[in-house]
Amino acid sequence: MSTFADRIINFNKNLQYNGTLPAGISIMNPFRDNDFAFDISSQFYRKYYNDEHPRHLVLGINPGRFGSGMTGVSFTDPKRMIAQCQIPYTGPITHEPSSEYVYDMIKAFGGITEFYQQFYIHSVCPLGFTITGPKGKEVNYNYYDMPELSKAVYPFIIENLQKQIAIGFETDVCFCFGTGKNEAFLRKLNDEQQFFKKIIALEHPRFIMQYKSKTKLDYIDKYVKAFSEVVI
């Protein structure tokens, strides 16, 4: 019988976008863009998800270059993969502030094993996007940053949310990272598709680290309280 780990790994293995994108936008698929993310993420899921314990979904925006774009695991940058998850990593060492926040929150919740036994973090759009910035450097781009992009990936988002829910996650409550455009999009989508009975939105880790770092501990308390209320 397959475990959550088996089904998540299979989802990642087959994750691919075959549609067209607006000019200047590139897709970011860590499982196909490099030769280490799939292996590292598979080790991660076999370590923390090799069971059938009920879990709730937590949905961010879409993968970023310095976190899951490197490791294949949402909000887990190489530094956290090595130091916190104690899983060997052979790719470039990058730092993602959102990952730092999430793992500080996980520690406050009760630790990595305890948290991942209850929750699975991914994204509304399971693959990321990049665009060339003003200085010629590749920068992250969100699925909602351009109406044409949102429209192009809309069927892809629906299909892959269906696939992730089918992995076996609870649908009474879904958590959303982001209280602005990501929340608005997910609520509208949920009204149409009826994926979840309730959506609980929390301020996005990146927003907290960039604009509210002085009150970071208050946000961690808010997160922990919200997550604790649905623990199975």
Automatic annotation (TrEMBL):
<dbReference type="Pfam" id="PF03167">
    <property type="entry name" value="UDG"/>
</dbReference>
<dbReference type="InterPro" id="IPR032579">
    <property type="entry name" value="Phe_SMUG2-like"/>
</dbReference>
<dbReference type="InterPro" id="IPR005122">
    <property type="entry name" value="Uracil-DNA_glycosylase-like"/>
</dbReference>
<protein>
    <submittedName>
        <fullName>SMUG2 DNA glycosylase family protein</fullName>
    </submittedName>
</protein>
<dbReference type="InterPro" id="IPR036895">
    <property type="entry name" value="Uracil-DNA_glycosylase-like_sf"/>
</dbReference>
<feature type="domain" description="Uracil-DNA glycosylase-like">
    <location>
        <begin position="47"/>
        <end position="227"/>
    </location>
</feature>
